[in-house]
Amino acid sequence: MAEKENSTQGEDNIMFSPYKMGNFNLSHRIVLAPMTRCRALEGIPQPSMGEYYSQRATQGGFLISEGTSISPTAAGYPHVPGIYKEEHVEAWRNIVDAVHDKGSIFFCQLWHVGRASHSVYQPEGAAPISSTSKPLSASSKVLLPDGSIGDYHSEPRKLSTSEIPEIVEHYRQSAINAIQAGVEIYFRPISLIKDMYLVYYVSWLFLGC
Ligand SMILES: Cc1cc2nc3c(=O)[nH]c(=O)nc-3n(C[C@H](O)[C@H](O)[C@H](O)COP(=O)(O)O)c2cc1C
User: Where is the signal peptide (predicted)?
Assistant: First the structure.
């Protein structure tokens, strides 16, 4: 029994012990994972999001934002925030300031969902873009704006090679926007890597940041 108590105490000590993560000095190891919360209206982060993130911020803590759209074609859920317009940047700045005031660092998860979207989230109801015109498997479902669950788009639009630099540019500009909003930087290439094989470009972006 005494041994078990000691080992539990040991685990607690690790969770609450400092950690050096690259240039960042964290005072504990409890991190907020990125979680889509669907609380941005028309892509604009709302004050309730500032409250949500600052409630979870602590001195020396580390938060990762929910997936944040890099362009009008990037979303695949309702009410996800963007980081590609000036009004997005302004709204994020208030949230980031609130998190920094509590002493945490804040990464922004830059996001494009690829074909994991629906025409309802696309400009002018177009097909979602991808590296392929193959749809996601029928067992994958999409959350629609009215809260119901539907099927993903039956045929994503396969991008031509010449269109890919534009997506890379959206990531680059969004990274700049996020830095202007005050965040430390992070992004989620996974959806696009799976869909578009942008490994080379994404690696370059990561190092470039
Ligand atoms: C409601 C919800 C929203 C999520 N949104 C995101 C997201 O925006 N980006 C992401 O990379 N992961 C997202 N995730 C995945 C989580 O960050 C986490 O990796 C996942 O829940 C596994 O951790 P767990 O085993 O502790 O739950 C989400 C998870 C949940 C439950």
Answer: none
For the chain, percent of residues with pLDDT exceeding 90 = 70
Which CATH number is 60's domain given?
A: 3.20.20.70
- What are the φ/ψ torsions at residue 96 (nearest 5 degrees)? -65, -40
The answer to whether residue 162 is domain-embedded is yes
Q: Is residue 72 part of a domain?
A: yes
Q: State the total domains in the chain.
A: 1
Kindly state if the Cβ of 50 falls inside 6 Å of ligand 1.
no
Given this model, what pLDDT does residue 186 score? 53
Spatial neighbors of 67 by CB under 8 A, at least 6 apart, are 34, 36, 77, 80, 109, 111, 113, 188
Q: Does ligand 1 come within 6 angstroms of the Cβ of 110?
A: no
Neighbouring residues of 110: CB distance < 8 A, sequence distance ≥ 6: 68, 70, 83, 171, 174, 175, 178, 186, 187, 188
Range of the domain at 152: 18-181
**Is the pTM higher than 0.90?**
no
